[in-house]
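Notebook B, p. 112. Complex prediction, attempt 2.
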Amino acid sequence: MSSQPPSDAEPQDEDGSIYPEELYTFEEFEAEQEVLEDLQDEMVAELKNDIEALEEGRRRSSGPRRYVARPREEANQRLMDDYFT
Amino acid sequence: MRRLLFLRIVHALGEWSPFFTLRVDAANRPGLSPIQKCTAAIRQLANGSPADQLDEYIKIGESTAVECLKLFVEGVIAKFGAEYLRRPTVQDVERLMEIGERRGFPSMLGSVDCMHWHWEKCPYAWKGMYTRGDHGVPTIILEAVASHDRWIWHAFFGVAGSNNDINVLNQSHLFVEQLRGEAPQVQYSINGRQHNIGYYLADGIYPEWPVFVKSIRKPQSDKHKLFAEKQEGARKDVECAFGILQSRFCILRRPARLYDQGDLENIMLACIILHNMIIEDEKDIEQVPIDLNEEASTYTVQEATISHGENPEMEDVLNRNTTLHDRQAYRQLQSDLIDHIWQKFGNTYSQNN
């Protein structure tokens, strides 16, 4: 994904058959690329966060609840056996 | 606590509230049995264990265990409070006086003192009110009267920890029955003089009223030394009772972890009631041996003659109040007791020294 913006930008520049160096200096082009890459990383991270939050929310709000088995009858039996026989 | 006593409590609580009966849930699955619930409550009282410790063995949830504890103490007070935290009846007073007479204190009804219980969850804003320098932590005070068999006859709990014993006494209901004229009437003679108020042994801070007998600070003569020795020895009853109460119910020795003062009061009273039940169950109640060589007893106990209805006559109450606070009578009683004890135990004392 990170290689897309350069490939997008290059054809546009070539369409007009203008030497890009006349419009941009190489330094300017690099700076722009950097800005775009930063933006892209940011968006990806944001999306990832959103997806994770959604997945977690789904796990909490619905789906089967988890129970801890508490065998109280057995505990009662054991208590009676231990102390009340 | 023996098993039979425990089962008796479980049974009585089942009558008191359906919470302590075996019920089934909607799926027809039986819930926690009353024995499980009472075991949980007793374990918290006796071991001072945290509520969630019981999950392992009894399989009872933490919040359920706390609920069990609160309802258990409430039920114990409701079912057994009237019998096991009663004011001394005529028979009780007679027995107490007989024991007292053997120990050189005829007509002694017990010894009185205060105990503090650390309240860990005391609200921060109240900390100043509940803290006293000698304890350094928020506490609540229990005032109690105990007799030689460690039975606790009177319990007054809930005064903020910064008070001293006199302030607690002023708030307590120790003498209310006496002021209303409903306490058993006592008559006895010491050293040839007639007295008619039963008294409690107390330590130094208590006021000089004829209802308290205090020790003598720095006694000089042999007579006074003997009296101080005997008084201090007999007053230890209440300290021993506190010690036994705390070791039976460890929750009272540890900082209290409940937030509500009312719950703490219930727990304290229930522990005292259970303590008395255990004493009765284990037959620690002192039986007075018949000794024909003893001189005939010099006291009489009578049922109070209540001449008033719900509200006693104000004038009578004031008169009784004055007799309770009579400092002259206190001095008289003390000097009589000093002579009495010297006559009774003086011989052995001079031989030993």
